[in-house]
Design goal:
- The chain is mostly helical.
- Helices cover 54% and strands 4% of the residues.
- It contains 27 helices and seven strands.
- Strands 3-5-6 form a three-stranded antiparallel β-sheet. Strands 1-2 form a two-stranded antiparallel ribbon. A two-stranded antiparallel ribbon has the order 4-7.
- Strand 1 and strand 2 (22-26) form a beta hairpin.
- The protein is elongated.
- The termini are far apart.
């Protein structure tokens, strides 16, 4: 078992020998004799018989040896449903050895062997065995396996004569394998050739697909492209266990070594949908982490385009610690297509990373791309930022509230203001839309001092969509500032006390005058249709009267001067 290597032979892992027993460790398998009829899928049975026939052909024709013990008890089934040939206790050379071959002396010691013993073994015609075509002895064993695969375990030799549930397309070939005369008996190699012809039992899409995957390393690129283009349809009809443990590992190998594209990745994703959380973590997640570390741009682009199909199933700690560091290199990639695909995929990755990573890494990388040379990337980056800033629970669940206040104020707001001056109209439109969406998160003072002045010129932009978006954004900003103004005090100047002494100091009088002027201004602002002159003049006249009564006044007005100031001028009777 250690030296006889073939894909159809049970894989030897390790072994140990003691004084009492020999221990052999193999790949995880189950005996075919223990597999129930419901688990023995017809396509898996076809593929299993193909593999056993090919393995016996290898042993007989290539190695010039005899297995001599093929039955359901010596065939094992892997997790994928593939068959492996074991029971190598009787394997020995076909000829030579001075008649000391193991199968000549110990075959009868195998439990249940009499129910499937070949006629030449029963009659001990060893000369006929040596003179027969290589593999003829195991042709009889293959017939026994076929009968047990369809009708259950053999108990007597006479059962081999009954067709039972053996398919009609397979029955003629079975009869040729079941020939008592070893000289006329079909070999496993001949059976494989005949059963694989068009319309024969082994001619099926499942067998062809399995063969292609096993030999994909030697296939031409055109053949691979043709195969992968139809793989998605084929997988839908394949047994789930075979897809998980056979096809999926083969596809992951193709992706790992740079031979796959979006079609291969689509097959991986399709199979992954049928896995539970534990199986996904075991079979798919390690491969995804490894694929993101690849330098192949075509592979990375395929991964980025299909992120929404597999990242939601990857645990958040794995995304944050193992996937995101490699993912973030796409923001800096020299290829514009990679940068753009990375921006679009950010919305899928964002819910899987921590708030710290989101604000300190992802947002800053996206803001840097607001100044990208490619206008399309600048536009999509702004849209991505807007969606992240307006994330809603159930649609885009971000960790710990998503974008924090510092990122809004010191990172995103300056980037949007810069984008409002972009020469590409869609960038300006996107910046206006994001500004409107982010207004509730921005400081009202910043909006009044920086955002509205920067936004206003776009009201007369040369592009109509920009003008329309600018008007909507301005209305949003004004509403935000207006709401903030309602929370502000009416004035910051202290009110004049009711019993204040009018003869106080000059500084006290100045404060009182200023308070009255502020009140007058507020009254005028409350009704813009009225003039503020009357209130202002009354205020100033009060100030002058206070100055006249002050003891510090150097000169007092005369009676005539007082009269001229208080009485209106009289008309001239001479005129």
């Amino acid at each position: 078992m250690r030296t006889l290597r073939h894909p159809g032979i049970l894989r030897y892992m390790d072994g140990a020998e003691t004084a009492d027993a020999i221990y052999i460790a193999t790949e995880p398998v189950t005996s075919l004799s223990l597999v129930t009829e419901s688990e023995n899928d017809d396509e898996l049975r076809r593929w299993g018989l193909y593999k056993m026939a090919d393995t016996l052909r290898f042993i007989g024709e290539d190695c010039k040896m005899v297995h001599g013990n093929v039955c359901a008890a010596t065939v094992f089934v892997t997790r994928a449903g593939e068959w492996r040939l074991g029971g190598l206790e009787l394997v020995d050379a076909l000829a030579g050895g001075d008649g000391q071959q193991i199968y000549r002396h110990f075959a009868s010691a195998v439990p249940g062997y009499n129910a499937r013993m070949a006629p030449e073994f029963e009659t001990r015609k060893w000369d006929a065995v040596e003179a027969a075509k290589p593999g003829a002895v195991d042709g009889w064993s293959l017939a026994c396996l076929i009968h047990e695969a369809f009708n259950g375990n053999l108990k007597t030799l006479s059962q081999l004569d009954a067709q039972g549930r053996i398919p009609q397309s397979l029955w003629p070939l079975y009869q040729r394998l079941h020939q008592a005369d070893i000289r006329r008996r079909m070999t496993p190699g001949d059976f494989l050739q005949s059963a694989s012809q068009s319309g024969a039992y082994l001619d099926s899409e499942f067998v062809h697909a399995s063969l292609f995957l096993e030999n994909i390393a030697v296939k031409e690129q055109d053949e691979k492209n043709e195969f992968f283009s139809g793989l998605h349809t084929l997988i839908a009809g394949f047994p789930q266990a075979f897809c998980k443990y056979k096809i999926l590992p083969e596809l992951l190998k193709v992706m790992e070594f740079g031979g796959g594209d979006a079609k291969v990745l689509s097959g991986i994703i399709h199979i992954g949908k049928g896995l539970d959380e534990a199986e996904y973590a075991e079979l798919v997640v390690p491969a995804i982490v490894q694929l993101f570390g690849s330098n192949d741009r075509a592979l990375r682009f395929s991964l980025l385009e299909h992120m929404d199909s597999f990242i939601p199933s990857v645990p958040a700690p794995v995304v944050g610690k193992q996937v995101f560091p490699n993912f973030s290199t796409g923001y800096l990639d020299a290829a514009p297509a990679i940068r753009e695909a990375t921006v679009k995929a950010s919305l899928v990755v964002a819910p899987k990373i921590t708030s710290k990573t989101l604000n300190n890494d992802m947002i800053r990388q996206l803001v840097r791309l607001v100044g990208d040379p490619e206008p399309g990337i600048r536009t999509n980056t702004l849209i991505c930022i807007g969606k992240l800033c307006t994330a809603k629970e159930g649609i885009l669940d971000l960790d710990a509230g998503g974008i924090n206040e510092n990122s809004h104020r010191y990172v995103i707001c300056p980037a949007i203001l810069h984008a409002l001056r972009d020469s590409f109209p869609p960038v300006r439109s996107a910046a206006l839309a994001v500004a409107s969406a982010c207004a509730p998160h921005w400081d009202a003072v910043e909006i009044a001092r920086r955002v509205i002045p920067t936004l206003s010129p776009l009201l007369i932009d040369s592009e109509r969509p920009v003008r329309v978006a600018a008007l909507k954004a301005l209305q949003t900003m004004v509403t935000r500032v207006e709401a903030h103004s309602l929370t502000m005090p009416a004035t910051t100047v202290p009110a004049k006390p009711a019993n204040a002494d009018t003869g106080g100091s000059s500084s006290g009088r100045a404060q009182a005058v200023a308070a009255d002027m502020a009140a007058a201004s507020m009254a005028a602002a409350s009704g813009w249709g009225g003039w503020a002159v009357s209130s202002l003049s009354s205020t100033f006249s009060g100030a002058l009267s206070l100055a006249a009564s002050s003891p510090s006044a150097a000169i007092a007005p005369t009676t005539s001067q007082t009269q001229s100031m208080s009485a209106p001028p009289q008309p001239n009777p001479l005129s």
